[in-house]
Automatic annotation (TrEMBL):
Residues 19-176 form the N-acetyltransferase domain. This is Acetyltransferase. One of its GO terms (molecular function) is acyltransferase activity, transferring groups other than amino-acyl groups. The keyword Transferase applies. Keywords: Transferase. Pfam families: Acetyltransf_3. It comes from the Bacteria.
């Protein structure tokens, strides 16, 4: 995965009904570590990273690159949204396309926050790179993620076996750019 490409970054913080999408800041570091060290968050993502390794290696301001949004609820980070370009991928349909990822703290699940935040990030994306499709890979066993992908308008391209699990590859077709 690489960065999105030539987009103006960071955008002005994006407000939704309940949330704020913004660039990561130094004060988010502890939450990034919690998110990446959480076994629950990584149940379907190949397992968490060791906390001591994250403490050592995480930059002072984590994950600061175009397409990396912190999702903020009432002034505190609850999750991250990632829009990255898949440079190489084991599935030809994905190579070169922009990929959506999402990670939320378990206490923030079940409130519709991920759906609200991802919809806003995709709106932003449609504005900066109009006409570009977005792909998403998730394990079929990840029921919450599968439901979210469907809600966001992703439809199945294929299923494949990788990382010892069945994977679902979805595509969100580009909305034709308006002039
Ligand atoms: C995938 C993930 C983001 C989904 O989170 P989520 O909270 O289930 O997703 P949504 O934002 O769509 O919320 C839907 C839930 O909120 C509920 N909800 C409550 N209030 C709501 C509201 N105001 N609006 C919408 N939904 C609401 C819905 O009923 C639904 O609950 P249910 O699943 O118990 O029926 C989360 O489980 C996660 O971070 N997982 C770990 C990381 C991961 O696996 N990522 C995928 C790979 S990229």
């Amino acid at each position: 995965m690489t960065e999105l490409g030539p987009v103006a970054w960071p955008p002005a913080p994006i407000r939704t009904q309940r949330l704020l999408l913004r660039e990561p800041e130094a004060r988010d570091r502890a939450t990034f570590i919690r998110l990446l060290a959480s076994p629950e968050v990584h149940t379907y993502l190949g397992g968490p990273r060791p906390r001591d390794e994250l403490e050592r290696e995480m930059p002072g301001v984590p994950a600061r690159w175009p397409g990396s949004f912190v999702v903020d609820l009432d002034g505190a980070m609850i999750g991250q949204i990632l829009l990255r370009r898949a440079t190489e991928h084991r599935r030809p349909a994905v190579a070169g396309k922009v990929d959506l990822g999402y990670l939320f703290l378990p206490r923030a699940w079940g409130h519709g926050y991920a759906a609200e935040a991802c919809a806003a990030a995709l709106d932003w994306f449609d504005g900066v790179l109009p006409g570009e499709p977005v792909v998403l890979t998730t394990q079929t066993a990840n029921v919450r993620s599968m439901r979210l992908a469907a809600k966001l308008g992703f439809t199945e391209i294929e299923r494949f076996q990788a990382w010892d699990a069945e994977q679902w590859l979805g595509l969100r077709s580009p909305i034709p750019p308006s002039d």
